[in-house]
Write a structure and sequence with these properties.
alpha/beta; about 325 residues; CBS-domain; three-stranded mixed beta sheet
């Protein structure tokens, strides 16, 4: 996955397109309020999915899985505040922590006894991260700033009513931009690709995700051919069954198929490196996927698609935030 600290150098702005960092339109967009541009208009009729700080983690992650969400805000009935946000990565990191590097179970914990509060607070009882919250009258730049700080979903207060909030995701921003903004260009710099062999165990895959703090990686065969992808949301397949975590990936998704990887049930979005980012964003918005695989075609040994990079929703939003920051700094200097 792309390192967003260097995204400004990795973006290639097509000369025929609008260069956002210098355009009056983009600077105007940054200064407008969330409410003014209508970002949350479609969310007004969508019910809020939230969790209680003292909910059991199993029921909490069941709720995330059932709603197909990566995260949800957490409300504390004691303090009467939105205290944090529960991310599916939290469960992955917790599960991985139960195994050592040799995949031996080092701690056998009864999950039914663990609450969100237990999982997400430090030894002093303080939540490790705050709930990302802004108001509907805050600027687009404030929203991008939170996305740039690695929050994938941000809570937007719609009124003085504490429970009247909407949750806006990075993918929602991408969908809005597809309809409203010009093309940015494309990531062109090759970077080391994090991937995993299909014969590796599921716990190895989740450990890779946890250690690199990422949401998904491509699954490849011994020749490097793209077979599938695994993401943090796939932790739902184990249903906290520790034995299933010790299955190889080709069995984890598809039990009793042998060691030949079957045709994935999930569609992967692939594109060539020269694909315009506008097109890639459009495909992300249309299919609601969170990552696109850049592939090259290799004809040797019958290989057709070899992944060379992964572009995620976070990468694109991070790039936009980087440009936004450069734009604001330049305007202040001028």
């Amino acid at each position: 996955m792309a390192d967003i600290s260097n995204l400004r150098n990795d973006l290639s702005i097509n000369n025929a397109d609008l260069e956002l960092s210098k355009s009056k339109e983009f600077q105007s967009f940054l200064s407008k309020s969330i409410d003014e541009v209508g970002l949350v208009r479609k969310l007004e009729r969508k019910p809020l999915v939230w969790l209680d700080a003292d909910d059991n983690i199993l029921s909490a992650f069941d709720e995330l899985s059932a709603q197909e969400l990566l995260s949800a805000p957490v409300f504390c009935q004691i303090s009467k505040q939105w205290v944090t946000i529960l991310d599916i990565k939290d469960l992955v990191k917790f599960v991985v922590s139960l195994f050592d590097k040799d995949n031996n179970l080092v701690e056998n914990i009864g999950f039914e006894q663990i609450s969100i509060r237990t999982l997400l607070t430090n030894k002093n009882g303080v939540f490790k991260r705050q709930c990302p919250m802004i108001g509907k009258n805050d600027s687009i730049f404030n929203l991008l700033d939170l996305f740039y700080k690695k929050f994938h979903r941000v809570c937007i207060a719609m009124s003085d009513n504490q429970m009247d909030i909407k949750v806006f995701s990075q993918l929602s921003l991408i969908k809005w931009m597809v309809k409203n903004l010009k093309s940015l260009g494309l990531f062109k710099k090759d970077k080391p690709l994090i991937q995993i062999d299909h014969k590796k165990l599921a716990i190895d895959a989740f450990r890779l995700l946890a250690e690199n703090n990422i949401y998904g990686v491509p699954v490849v065969n011994e020749n490097g051919e793209l077979l599938d992808n695994i993401s943090v949301i796939d932790i739902k397949y184990c249903k906290m069954d520790k034995a299933k975590l010790l299955q190889p990936l080709y069995e984890f998704f598809y039990p009793s198929v042998g060691n030949a990887y079957p045709i994935p049930l999930r569609d992967m979005i692939v594109c060539a490196p020269q694909t315009k980012l506008r097109e890639a964003m459009g495909r992300m918005a249309a299919t609601k996927v969170h990552r696109i695989f850049l592939v090259k075609e290799v004809v040797e040994a019958g290989i057709t698609q070899v992944p060379i990079n992964v572009i995620s929703v976070s990468d694109i939003v991070g790039a936009i935030a980087t440009i936004a920051g450069s734009s604001v700094l330049k305007s202040l200097q001028d």
